# Entry
Amino acid sequence: MMSPEKLRKSTHLAICTCVTVTLLAGPGCSRKSQSTNISTDMSSDSIGIEDSDSIHQIGGFDTDTSTTMVQIPTDSGANPLEFEECAAVAEDAENTREPADIIFVIDNSKSLYDEIEMVRANMNDFSERIMNSGIDPQIVMISCLPGDCGNRGGVSYGICIDPPLGAEDGCQYVSDTPDTEDPKEPVTPDSNLPRYKHLSVRVPSMKELEWLVTTYEDNNGLTEAGWHDMIRDDSMKHIVVVSDDGDQTTAEQFNESFQALSPLLGNYLFHGIFAFAPKDEAPADSQCSTYAAPSSPDAIPPIYWDTYSNLVAMTGGVSGDLCEQDFNPVFEALGSSVIASSKINCEWEIPAPPTGETLDAGLVNVEFSSQITAPYVIGNIPAADRCADVEHGWYYDNPAAPTQIKVCPNTCTWFQSEADAHLTIQFGCETQTVVLE
# Structure
C-alpha cells in the first residue's frame, strides 16, 4: 500500500462491510465518553482504535456505533484519544462497475444438440448473476433460432433463450406441425432489447470466428442487422464460442480482423467451451474420443485446433472442455471472469439527504478498503487539477453545488487493482483534507 497523505486533523470514520453512505442525522459531533482500547500496527504506520457502544436511535434512524476503527497517518498531528464521534444515519450505496458486452457464437451442427440445450439452461442464471454484481450486461447471440437454420443439406439445431433474458413472448411455437427441413419447430424471435439481441443465422462448424466478424455490420450477407449497435464505448467486451470442432481461422488472423472492425474492440476477453483435443488425438478414456470432431489434417482450407485455446491464453479468458459435458462450472467461471474484469467506476453520486436535512460539503470523508488493504482515509483536494500534487485524493464535481464524489486517476487505478474494493463515504464529520504545499 502506498504511504498515506498528510491529512489535517480528522474525526471518527465508521467502517462498513459494504459501500455505505452515511448522512448527518444530528446537529454535529458529540464527544466520546467511554473507555478506549488502543492497538498500534507498526507495519501499516497506523493506529487502530476500537470501542463498544450500543445501537442508538437518532431522529428515527438506527445508528450503529458498535465498532469504530480509525486509520490515522502518524504525521497527521491527530490525537486518537481526543477523537470525536458523530451521530449519523447509515444509508447503503453501491459501487457501479463498467458495463459488459458479451457475444456468444454457437455452432449449429447436429453434434451440438446437447450442448445447445446446456447453454440455454444456463443463460438466465448467468445474466442474472452479472446484473446482481452491479454490472449492466448486453448480450448478443449469433446462432440460428429453431426452425430458422436453413439446413443446407445437413441437420442443424437452433437455440432460443427463455425469458427474462429472452423476450417474454419469444420461443413460442408458430406451428403445430414441425418444419420438415429442421428437427425443431419454428419459434417466435427471442430478442429482448436493449439487454439481449439474437442474430438468427446458421453457424457452421469451423466458421464461428468468420461469422462473428462478418455479422458486425448491418446487411452483411448473412443477416440484415449486425451486432455493432450492442457495443458501448465504456464497456468490457467478451466473446464466448461454443464448438466441438476446430476453426479455419488462426488466433492471430482473428485478433487482427476483429480489432480492425472498430476502435471499441481493441480490448476484449475471449472465452470458449470447446473440445480440448480432436477425436482421433484424445486419450481413449477421454470423452473427447467420443464427442469431439476428428482432426481432418488434410482438410482444405486447414482446420486449426489450437485457435480457441490460443485466444483464451492471449486475452486472459476462461475455457471449459466441451467433452466433459458439464456446463454449470464453466458458466460459473465465465460469470466470475466477467465480474472480475469489470472495473469499478471512480465516481459516486451523492444521495439526497433525509427529509429536512441539507448536505454540508465540509462534513464529508472518504475511506477505502479491500481484501488486502485495511481501511484507508483518502484526503480531500480542492479540484481535479491538484491530482498531480498528491499521491491519493478525492474531490467534488462542483464544490459550490456537489452532486458527485470523484477520485484522482492514481487513486482510481489503485481501487480497480484490488479485489472486493469498497468505498465508505461519511457525511457528518469535518472533512479531512490533504495538506498541499
Helices lie at 113-132, 208-214, 251-261, 288-291, 307-315, 328-341, 409-416. The domain at 100-341 is CATH 3.40.50 (Rossmann fold). The longest strand covers residues 20-31.
